[in-house]
Amino acid sequence: MQHFDSLSAYLKYLELPRPEHPMFSMYTALGEGFLPCPKESSPPITNDCYSISFKRFVAGDLNYGRTKYDFTDGALFFIAPRQVLQWDSSAVFDQKGFSINFHEDFLKGTELAAQIRKYGFFSYSVNEALHLSPKEERQIELIIENMELEYHNNPDSFSKEIIIAHLSTLLKYAQRFYERQFNSRTELSNDLLDRFNQALATYFDSGRVQEEGIPGIEQIAEELSVSQRYLSDTLKKETGKTTTEHLQLYLIEEAKNILLDPGKTVAEVAYELGFEYPPYFSRLFKKKEGMSPTEYREKYRMN
């Protein structure tokens, strides 16, 4: 797989104009004109750059990791360094919007270098993009317009600091708008929780838990075709519980049913649920239920 360790090399590969800064570039078409077109297709590639883009896909596929873009107009999406990108000649863009690319070293020595790691949406898949309302779109455009003025200005000792300040503002607004999206797309959030539980049920019913153990969150997210971070953020926002907590709740509910079988020891129940160490299962059960597996079994045996 081809990897690009500089911004210039990456943009040259894309057949885009050279950047005005060796580690930062931006292309905009918010009013007149059109964005420059990247090359028609590419096999899987990686690079050391962050990308922030607002574009409208009309048709075709853009693959990001293992996920395809969902073709919703007016989507703002974020790509982190070393993510796998791939697209083909069927992809058709409405060449309006903007595209920002910057090398990760551009942020070195700044507060944003540490802060940017906290923005989980850089770990989302492309089909988990941020869908902006017209008002939100205009707020983002204002930031981009100011950033563009500085980008094309004669560089001085303040240029980089000002551009990074605009970047920081843009990311804060994106965080705010994602919060709104989580709230306004409740139906999708509920669907994701249902699919999460169904994936667990299918996994346990298939007998895989005895062979492979308790599934990891990353594994479940992959089966749902979403990123691990998006799955976690969505469920946390909708239910107040993390993906790990939902997995544990599922395990405890399964354990309750199996514990009512008097022919199985607590250790056998633990192994059946994929726990390598029965004492860990017993501690988790007591933490969630307020009683040990043995006490639970005795309580309901008496009823």
Describe this structure in words.
The structure is a single chain. This protein is an alpha+beta fold and 303 residues long. The protein folds into 2 domains: 2-184, Jelly Rolls, CATH 2.60.120; 187-302, Arc Repressor Mutant, subunit A (Orthogonal Bundle), CATH 1.10.10.60. The protein is 49% helix and 17% strand. It has helices spanning 7-14, 111-115, 134-151, 159-184, 186-205, 208-212, 217-223, 228-239, 243-259, 266-272, 278-289, 293-302, and strands at 2-4, 24-29, 42-47, 49-59, 62-64, 67-68, 75-79, 85-87, 92-103, 130-131. It is elongated, with a radius of gyration of 24 Å. The mean pLDDT is 83. One of its GO terms (molecular function) is sequence-specific DNA binding. Pfam families: HTH_18. This is AraC family transcriptional regulator.
Overview in brief:
Helices cover 49% and strands 17% of the residues. The chain has 12 helices and 10 strands.
What are the SSEs and their pairings?
Elements: E1 2-4, H1 7-14, E2 24-29, E3 42-47, E4 49-59, E5 62-64, E6 67-68, E7 75-79, E8 85-87, E9 92-103, H2 111-115, E10 130-131, H3 134-151, H4 159-184, H5 186-205, H6 208-212, H7 217-223, H8 228-239, H9 243-259, H10 266-272, H11 278-289, H12 293-302
Parallel strand pairs: 1-3
Antiparallel strand pairs: 2-9, 3-8, 4-7, 4-9, 5-6, 5-8, 7-10
